[in-house]
Amino acid sequence: MSLPAANLKLESKLAIMEQYVGKKVIDAVIVGPKEDVSAVKERIVIQEVLEASDIPYRHDRQLLHSALEKALQALG
Known about the structure:
This protein has one domain. Helix content is 41%, strand content 11%. It is built from 3 helices and 2 strands; from the N terminus they run H-H-E-E-H. The protein has helices at residues 3-6, 10-21, 61-75, and strands at 28-31, 44-47. It has a two-stranded parallel sheet.
């Protein structure tokens, strides 16, 4: 992600993506524990540790898999 995009709040990132798509299409998001999700409304938010212990800028596959499973179950 570019530095300017990394500085955007989550709700702004979602709004930009959906603006390009042309409608609201994102029902759930998976984010790390430091992400501010207070402004995210009407979406499922899975907020958990996702980074690998050995390489912090990479996702741990098992943690990401678990978060994806939780999001899918929450979506029904």
